[in-house]
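Re-running the complex after MR caught last week's input typo. The corrected sequence lines follow. Everything else is unchanged.
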Amino acid sequence: MEVLAQTPRVSLASFGNTAASSLKRPVFVPSTNGASPAPWAKKDARLVLEDGSVWEGRAFGTQGTALAEVVFNTSLTGYQEILTDPSYKGQFVVFTHPHIGNVGINFGDMESEKCHLGGIIIRDLAASVSNYRSTKTLDAYLKEQGVLGIADVDTRAITRRLRDTGALNGVITTDLSTPVDDLVQQTKSWSILGKDLISEVTCSEPYEWKDTTEHEWEFNPAVQEKGELFHVVAYDFGIKHNILRRLASFGCKLTVVPADYPASKVLEMNPDGIFLSNGPGDPSAVPYAVENVRQVIGKKPVFGICMGHQLLGQAFGGETFKLKFGHHGGNHPIRFGPTSRIEISAQNHNYAVNPATLPDDVEVTHINLNDGTCAGLLCKPKKAMSIQYHPEASPGPHDADVCFEQFIDMLKAERAGAVQAAVAA
Amino acid sequence: MILGAGPIVIGQACEFDYSGTQACKALKAEGYRVVLLNSNPATIMTDPGTADRTYIGPMTPELVEQILEKERPEAILPTMGGQTALNLAKALSEQGILDKYNVELIGAKLPSIDKAEDRELFKQAMKKIGLKTPPSGTASTMEEALVIADQIGKFPLIIRPAFTLGGTGGGIAYNVDEFHEIVDAGLTASLTKQVLVEMSLLGWKEYELEVMRDLADNVVIICSIENIDPMGVHTGDSITIAPAQTLTDKEYQRLRDASVAIIREMGVECGGSNVQMAVNPVDGEVMIIEMNPRVSRSSALASKATGFPIAKIAAKLAVGLSLDQIANDITRKTPASFEPSIDYIVTKIPRFAFEKFPGAKAELTTQMKSVGEAMAMGRTFQESFQKALRSLETGLDGWSLPKNWKRMTRQQVEYGLRVPNPDRMLIVKQAFEDGFTKEQLFELTNIDPWFLSQFEGLHETEEWLRTRKLADLSAEDFLQTKKRGFSDPQIARAVGASPSEVRSRRKELGVVPSYKRVDTCAAEFEAETPYMYSSYDGDSEAAPSSSKKVLILGGGPNRIGQGIEFDYCCCHASFSLRAAGYETIMMNSNPETVSTDYDTSSRLYFEPLTVEDVLNVIETERPDGIIVQFGGQTPLKLAAPLQEALTNNPIPAASGEGNVRIWGTSPESIDEAEDRDKWYKILTRLDIKQPPGDMVVSEQQALTVAQKLGYPVMVRPSFVLGGRAMEIVYTDKDLKRYIENAVEVDPDRPVLVDKYLDRADELDVDALCDKDGNVVICGIMQHIEQAGVHSGDSACSIPPQTIPEECLDTIRDWTTKLAKALKVIGLINIQYCIQDNEVYIIEANPRASRTVPFVAKAIGHPLAAYASLLMSGQTLSEIGFTEEPVLNHVAVKEAVLPFEKFQGADTLLGPEMRSTGEVMGIDKTFAKAYAKAAIAAGQKLPASGNIFITMIDKHKQDVIPIAKKLVELGYGIVATRGTAAALREGGVEATEVLKIQEGRPNAGDLMKNGDISMMFITSTGNEEDVRDGKNLRRLALALKVPIITTLAGARATVQALEGMKSGPLEQVPIQDYFPAAKELSPVEFAA
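Corrected-run output:
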C-alpha cells in the first residue's frame, strides 16, 4: 500500500480568536433631507434567474458576480454543514429558514476544507452571533472563502418559483451596472447538465482518514460494540467529512482516493469494502467513475451514498434522471422496505435512479414517501448497497445511521465467508 | 371513550377543547363510536354532534364507572384531556375499575403516566438512557426536603410538587424561609404528597420539542420551541418562539436524539409528547427537565405554528394507524410521517391577570400564572414578535413603551430585568432607551444575545423613525419598517401623525401586506389549505375567491372574562354559515382554540385583531359580511372604527353583491347600549327601570351622588370588561379610597355610581332577534349568588328556581322591547336584578355573551349557529326557533376560580370577575344538578362531618334555617362565638370555636386536624374583617376544605348536600336530554 498524504484540514489557528464577535453594523445611508440615516443598508446586490425574474437584496460575503444553478434547502439548522458540503458545487442555495448566521461558524462542523457552493440566498442575516463554539461570523467566513451572499430577498417566493418551474440557473452580482438582460443571457449560457463537477471537488492524492465522531457528539451506542477493524477504500466524489467520521466510528480504517483513481489499484489494496461517496452534479457526466464502480462490484462489498448510489445504479445498467427541483432538506420520510421502518432523512440530490431500468437482482430497499422515488438499493449477489440520501446526516436527523451498521454487517459477513472458504479449502 | 379536561383553569385552557374535538372528529371519521366525558359546557367537544354519547358532568372515578357500566367502551383515550384526564385515568386504573370493565388505556399506559409524573422514576429512566437531569431529590416531609437542600448545597433551589396542574405549589426558593414556605405549599398541593427539590438551572437556555410516535415505533419531531425567557420561568409563562434559533445542527440533533430516546424509554406507545430541556449556554451541556406523555398546551402551539394537527394525528395513532398511513392534510400528497419545516418565525406571548388578584406578587416563577396567550407569525423574528405583542390586547401596538408607561428608576429597571415579571419585555425597551448595552442586558436577564440584538435592531429602527416626519418616509422606508413588524399606530406615534394618516400614506406608496401560507414544508410542496399570516415580503399567496363569504373575528388571547365561550360562538358561526353555503374566513390570534384549526373555517388568517390588521384582511378578501358579535369585547371594540373605515371608503364585496358590511346588530346599536346617556334615554322611552345611579367625573361628585343614593353603592369605571375595578363600597372613606387608588377619574374617564341592591336576585337572559324584529327568549338564568357577585363568578340555574312568574314575565316583556328598540340582529344578553319583587335592568350587551354555550347545552339548541343564520338574513321562523324552550330538567353552571395560583390573594367573590372557567351539572332536580356542578367544579361535598359557620352580623339570622337543615342531614355545626350564640338562640346546637386571632385551639387548628369538612364564611368587606377572614380562607384553600362565601351559596350548597343524600347521582348523556339536538348541531357540517 502507498504511503498516503494527510489531507489538509482546517486548523483552529486559521480562525484567529474573534470569538462570537458581532457582525458589521448596518450601513447607514444618508436620507433625502440629510436627517439621520436609516438603520438598514441600501440594496446592493441582485439575483437574476433565467426566467428573467430579478430579486434585489443586500450583499454580504464577498463582492462580485457568480453563476450557478439555484436550489432551495428546507433544513432548519446546519447552514455551515451545507456551505461546506462539496455536493453543492455549481449551485446557489436558497435557505428557506429565514434567519441564517445565528450561530456563526465553528471549527467542528466543517464538512470539507472549504465552501464549494457558488453563493447563498437568504431572507435575513443574523446581526450577531450566539454560540459557545462559534469562532467567526458567517459574513467573515464567506468573505474569506470568496463566496457571494444575498440577503433580504423573499426566499419563499423564490422557492415557490423553483418548485413550479424546476431548478433554474441564476446570477448573483454586486455589480449594479450590468443590465438585467445581459445577466439573463449569462444564466442561459451555462448548464449544469452533463458537467463534470466531481473533478473539481475530489482530492488530488489518496490519503488516510482515522478521525471518528468526537466523543461529545457520539449518539449511537452501537458504535462502541464494533470492535473489529475493517479497511475501506472510499472514492471521493466530493466526500463529506461526516461520512468518514461515521465509518471510522464503526471501526473502519479509511483510504480516501480521488474520483478517477483506477479500480484496479483499489482492488490491489485488497480492502474489506469499497465506499462510493456523495458528490455534486450529474452522474452521467462522469462515465469514468461509473466504469470504476462497474469494475469493483461483485468483487468487494460496496456501499454508495447519494452520488455513489446513482453511480452504482448506472453501473448496474440502470438509468438516472433529473428531478424537477431535487430533494434538499432534513425532513424527508424514507421507508425501509424489509421492516417498514420510517427514517426521517437528510437529503441533497437532484438526480434519481429509475428503478424500472435496473436488473432483476437489484432490489429497491428504500423509498422516499414524499414522491415515491427510489432511495436505496441492495444487490445481494454482488454484495452492494446504496442510499440516495445522507445517513451521515450533518446536517439532519440521525435516523439512518443504521445504514452504516448494515454496511459493517456486510463486511463482517464477507470476512466470515472468506474465513469459512479458507477453512473449507 | 375520550376524557376531556374539565373546566378552564390556569395551566389548562381551551387547547384541550382543540385536542379533544380533533380526537372526537378523527375517531368518528375512522368509524368508532365515541363516548365523551367533560364537565365543561363551553366546549365544541361537548356539542351533541361532536361525540356519539356526551356526558357533561363531574369527572370522578365513581361517575366514570357508571358510564363504563352503561356504555361499555373498549378503550379509554386519556391523552387529550390534559392533566385532568391523566389523573382520572390513573385513579381508574389504580382502583381496578379499568380491569373490572375490561377497558384498555390507549395512547399512554399507566406506567408511562407514572414514570413521567413521579420525579424519581423519571430521573431513573433518564439515567438509564444516558441523559442528565438536574441534581435533585424527592421529599415527602419537610425534614427530608431540608436534607436534600443540604446535599445540593446552594440556593436558589427549585421545588416542584408531583402530580399537579401547571406546577401548582411549586416555586424557586432563594433562602431558607422561602424554602420552608414553598415546600409546605408543594407537599399540600401534590396528590402524592411529594415534592422534588432540585438544583436551579436559572439562566440556562430552555427548549421544548414536540414528539410523536406511532405503534410501529416511528418517531418524528413536529416542532422545536425556544424560550426567550431562560430557565426559571414556567414555560407557559415564557415568551417562546418556534423554531429554535440559537442551536447548531449538532446541538439540535442532540436534543432530537434525546427526545426520541425519551418517548421510547417512557413507553409512550403512540401519540404526542412534549419534552422540556435546558442547555447550558457556556458549554452546551444538556439536562432533561420533564416530559408530558400527552398532548399539551405546547402541542396546540406546535400544531398552530406548523400546520401539523398533532391531536388529530395522535387520535388516529391511538387506534393503530401508523404515521405513513395518514396523509398530510395541508399538502394532501405527502404523508404525515415527516418533520415540518417552516419558513417563518412564530412567537407566543402569555397574557397575565395579576391586576385581578391584589396581594399576589406580579413575578414569574416555575408556577404558571398566565391565563391565556397570543401567537403571531412573521417572516422574521422581529415581525413576529411585534405582531404577537399587539395581538395580546394589553394596549400595546408593538414593542414600544405605551403612552401611560411610568418610567422606572435605574434601580427598578435593574430589578425588573433580573426578576422575571409580566412587563419584562417593556423594561428591556426602557433599558435600551436609557442606554443600557446588550452586554448589560445579558448580565441582568440571561436572555440569549441573539434575541437581544434583535431587540436592539427594533430599538434603533424606532429611534430613527422618531427623527422623521410622515412625509419623509419613502416606500422603501415604509417597507423596511413594516418588515420589522411596526404597526401603523406605532409608526404614527414615532413620526407624530395619526394611524389613519399613516395608513393612507403607506397605501399611497403601495406598501401593503402580502399573505403567506402555513404549509408544513417551507414551500417545498403546494399547500391545499388556505392557512395564512401577513408579512411584508413581496409575494401574496392569499388567492381570495369571489364566493359569497363572511369574515368572523375571533376573541384573541384568553383572559379572565373572555375565554373559550367566545371561541365556541365563533366556531359555531363558521360551521353554520359554511353549511349555509358561505365561504367562512376566521381571523384570530389565539393558538389554544378550535377556531384557529385550519379545518374549522374555509380560510384562516392567524393575525392580530387590530383595526389595521383586520382592515388589511378585509381589503384582501372583500367579504360580504363581517361578524363582530361573537369574539367578545375584542372584535366588538373594532366595530366602530371598522364601520367608520367602511363608510368612508366603501369596498365592493368580492362576490359582486353590494359592499362589504358588518353583519348583525349595527355598531350604532352597540354604542347605544354602552353609552350612558343614550342608554338612559332608551330605558326612559321604554319605561324600563334601572337601579338609581349616576355618572361622575370627580371625587366630590361621587360623594354627593353616593350620599344621595345611600350606601352601599356599586362603583365602576364606565367602560369595563369582566367587572374590572368594580367594587361595592359602604362608606365615604371606602369611596375616597376607591377613587384615589382603583381608578383615575376625570372627564374622559367617568365613573358610574349606582345604588347597590342588597340581597337582590340577579338574572341573565339570552335572547335571539331577527331582522324583522321577532324576539325569542333562549333562557333565563337565575344566579345562585345574589347581586354583587360578578355574573361570571356566580353559579346559575336554568330555569330560575325562586323567582315569581310575574317577575319573569316582566323580564320577558322588557327583553323583547329592548331587543326591538336596539334593532338587534342575532344575540342579546341582558342582566336583571330583582329586589322585593321589583325588577331592575342592570345592563344589556347586544352580542354573544359568556353564557351562550351553557344556555345552548341546557336547552339543546345551538344558539350561536342560529344567531349566525339570523345575521346572514334568515328569520327565526325559517330556522324553526320560535318559542322559549320549556325544560323538564335543571341545568346548573358553576364557576371555577384560580385562587390557589395566587398566593396572598383573598378568595372572596365580588363584583370583579376572577373565574377562569365553568362546569355544568344537569339533572331532573335543582338539588342534584347543583350537586353535580359543585362536584364538577372541584368542591368536595362532604357526606358527613362538621360544618364551620362564621357569619357577619346581618347574616346571623338568615343562617339559622340553613344550619337547621344541616343538622337534620346529620352534620355537626362548629361556629365562632357570635354566630354560635345566634344559632343557639335559633335552636341550633353549635360547638363554639375561637377565631384564629383569639388564641388556641382555634378554627384553624380544627381545620388542620381534619375536623372541619366545609366552611361557610361571609364578610362585610371592611378592612379588619377582610384581614381576619382571609387567613381562614387561605388556610381552607390550602387544605382543600370547601369554602362558601355567600349566604345564597350556602343555601344552594345545603340543597346540593340534600340532593346528594337523597340517592345516587346518575349520569345521563346530553343526547338523551335532546334526542333531536344531534341534527341541529353544526359540527357535523364541518367534517
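None of the earlier attempt is carried over here. Chain A has two domains: 12-188, 198-418. Residues 1-34 of chain A have pLDDT under 50 and may be disordered.
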